[in-house]
Amino acid sequence: MTGPKDLGRHDRNAVPEGKTALGRVRGLGSAHHGGEHWIKERVSSAALLLLGTWFLISLLLLPDFTPSTIIAWLSGPFGFVPMALFVYLSFEHSLEGVKVVVDDYQGDEGGRLTWHVVSLFLHVGAGALALFALARIAFGA
Amino acid sequence: MARNTARPLSPHLTIWRWGPHMLVSILHRATGIALSTAGLVLLTWWLLALAGGNAAYATFSAFIGWKLGPVPLIQLGLVVLTWTFFQHTLSGIRHLIMDTGAGFELKTNKTMAYLTIAGSLLLTALFWAALLGKAA
Predict the structure, then answer these.
(1) In terms of domains, do A62 and A113 share one?
(2) Hey, where are the domains in chain B?
(3) What is the pLDDT of residue B88?
(4) What residues of chain A lie within 8 A of the CB of B2, using their CB?
(5) Does one domain contain both A9 and A48?
(6) What confidence category does residue A10 fall into, taking pLDDT thresholds of 50, 70 and 90?
(7) Contact (CB<8Å) A104/B41
(8) Domain co-membership, A134 together with A97
(9) What's the pTM value of the predicted model, to 2 decimals?
(10) Which of A30, A76, B44, B98 makes the best surface tag, with the fewest CB within 10 Å?
(11) DSSP 8-state symbol, B11
(12) Is this prediction's ipTM beyond 0.95?
């Protein structure tokens, strides 16, 4: 009989009996994408440090908070572009952060997948809505 | 899909002795969640209200100005939200410093942790003083 048992002991592709190749490696280690998320989280944080500071200072510099003043500010290139980046990166950074929290506290693999998908849908949905609103502010209804 | 019990879960609050570094660490997470929920909902609603015309903006303003008796609860919530922003930002900077391998000495680490708290409170006070000073 030629089964998994006949494969060499040190053959790293050997599949133990009763397990598929996927089942054997699941949850065991690196898929070589580990650093990507970590770096993205930090690069977006650096960008948000600048954009968040810009946002708060801009609010303080507005002459008043009537809708027409805010709309005039967000319609110009130096209102619209940083604001669009601020919105996009806030949602991206938030998605990445929530991912880490879910991974830390949700031990169950199914629960983790569910939370990740729910978080992804909410972030993409709300983020798209916010960007649509900003475009409408800048380019008119 | 079952949980792989061989893999550890993150240690929880209950096993750590409370200290400034540990407080700032968990605050980073708590403030992050607050910004992810309340912060992003408000940001999105604000933009939608601006895009939606005067009636939509009036609804948003009415919500911000909502009071429980004499207490402007939502505005106080906004003050807390700006504090969470400053706290998350400052402890985020602390994390970026620590990512380089610096600041792990006990005293430096503790000092940096205290500085994020003092800084976030100070920046919140300054921001609202400037904002309210402008309105007055």
Answers:
(1) yes
(2) 19-135
(3) 98
(4) 108-109
(5) no
(6) low
(7) no
(8) yes
(9) 0.84
(10) A30
(11) P
(12) no
**CATH number (domain holding residue A57):** 1.20.1300.10
Burial letters B82-119, b for 16+ CB under 10 A, else e: bbbbbbbbbbbbbbeeeeeeeeeeeeebeebbebbbeb
The answer on A53 and A109 residing in a single domain is yes
Residues of A with CB under 8 A from a CB of B: 27, 42, 45-46, 48-49, 52, 56, 59-60, 67, 70-71, 74, 87, 90-91, 94, 97-98, 101, 104-105, 107-110, 113, 126-127, 129-130, 132-134, 136-137, 141
CA distances from A94 to A136, B16, B20 (A): 24, 26, 25
The whole-number average pLDDT for the span A73-95 is 97
Contacts of A91 in chain B (CB under 8 A): 40
Q: What is the Cα–Cα distance from B78 to B54, expressed in whole angstroms?
A: 22
Q: Looking at per-residue confidence, does A106 or B76 come out higher?
A: B76
What total of structural domains would you count in chain A? 2
CA distance A58 to chain B (A): 11
**Taking 80 as the threshold, does the pLDDT of residue B107 lie above it?**
yes
Query: Which residue in the block uniquely carries the two structure tokens 């798209």?
Result: A128
Q: In CATH, what number does B19-135 get?
A: 1.20.1300.10
